[in-house]
Design brief:
Length: 582
Amino acid sequence: MKNKGNSTFRRLLPYMGKYKWSYGGLSLTMLADIGLNLTFAWFLAKVLDAAVSAQTDQWRELILIGIGILILMTITYFTDSFLKHSVSANIRNDLRQTAMSRVLRYPYAHFHSKHSGDLMSRMTNDNQTIGGACTFYLMDLIKNPLLAFCSFIYLSILHWQLALICLSMGPIMLVMGALFGKIIRRISLQIQSQKAESTTILQDILQSFMVLKTFGLEPKLFRRYQEKSDQIVSSEVKEAKIHGMANGLSALVNFLTFMIAMLMSGYFVATGSLEIGAMGAFIQLMNFLVHPFTQLPNMWANLQQALGGADRVFEVIDGPTEFNDIKEAPVADKKPSTMSVQDVSFAYEKNAAPILEKVSFQAEAGQTIAVVGPSGGGKSTLFKLLLGFYPQFQGKIQLNGEGLEDQPLEEWRSYFSYVPQETYLFSGSIKDNLLDGNEQATDAELEEALKQANAYEFVQALPEGIHTNVGEKGTRLSGGQKQRIAIARAILRDAPILLLDEATAALDNESEVLVQQALTRLMKQRTTLVIAHRLTTIQHADVILVLESGHIVERGTHEELLNRNGKYAELYNRNAEELISA
Ligand SMILES: Nc1ncnc2c1ncn2[C@@H]1O[C@H](COP(=O)(O)OP(=O)(O)OP(=O)(O)O)[C@@H](O)[C@H]1O
């Protein structure tokens, strides 16, 4: 193993240590396997000697020994295989969970710098390869040299000159193993990352099915997928060539040694310096001596491949986190909260132009603050800062007088409910999604939340009511229905601050009225920040902030801003015209 492999393997040790009893069991099955192999060679010699000397009276004993060997072999192989598979599955499971717990704690910015397809490939394809490194290849790498060593001792006892000839093949195989292993590891890393790229394209295709169909992107996306898929196959063919060469050379050395040993041991039997039984045992033992070496290149290659997968999983595990461990979210104080934003400036990247500059405002408990302004003005960015997604801003954000930096992020976020533009529902039933708002909610509370969200009637009309499966990302529901379920979920969460991001932007009029009514109920008794493009929906806001190019260029009530006849009035009039012409 090269340095990289060594350090990867060292990192796997704690995961393996958890199953030390199983490894203890595997060590025993390995020793039993070696012992049984040697016993088998001894048994062969005994049978041959008895046959040549026509000692038929020994057959009863030989059959009993044979049965004993068979029983022990069956038990050994069953236990060995069971332990290897179960340890492999458990280690992969532990790594999967460690990686997932890490991904869930990634800071927003880090998560968004990764493609979900690449992450998925690491959590599935790469994870799958690791089990072999920790069990099958590892145990074989220990067992095979040990078996070769024991066979060599046994062979030396039978005929030391022959034993030395067989052993001389070992170094050749070792050099081959190291050489092929190195090449295979490089190619497998290439294959794994190509697979990740193809999963990335696959995911883009699956997630944009409607858009890709509408835009006729099938040929373009198929070409992109085809290109990646072809790259994978060409790397795999390269890998197959290396495996083939390793196997071919292994077989050559294997048979060559076998033939030399057969011819020489036969010659020694003919000249009377070796018994026929010993010759049989010798050929069998020689197999045990040479076989491990012939297996070495392939085993080494497989191990390197598995460690390559482990490297990619550890890259996921090494990502940054925004808090230390995953625990149940704290429940925020339900009383209406105040929020103050003072001189907040922010740029996504160092030295880049600021997206927000010296933004300040105050939301009193229970107030509704609307944020409006042209596209790209920084509205969504402001929400992201409020939710603590980018802690590296300048200025101060406070809730009830306490700063964002003064408390754990989980606690900070427990004060917020968020209804985004694109509602996300999780796979599962409507009820499951509602319970994400409050795990403890009773059936009566769920029903009440659905009523408040104008969702009760349509949910009742569904064949399975609240138990209806919403489909992947809620695709079995209409846009408005999804949003009303999301609002019911937010009602159940009952957080004191509500962030609404153009929740009605994509809806038709009827749906919008229903959603708007639901939102108005949700906003009651809560401090609300709402991003709105349809300015008609925010006329009753306590304060309207006009955010343009990262600056608050106007603030006031709807009437005040209309009277000022500035930016807001311009936006409002344009909006009204658009509505009329629509
Ligand atoms: N992750 C990001 N990395 C770099 N720049 C970003 C990122 N997200 C947004 N921006 C940039 O920040 C600016 C403000 O974007 P933001 O989404 O906050 O605007 P917005 O006012 O919400 O726009 P819209 O009304 O169109 O949703 C834009 O110029 C955008 O390109």
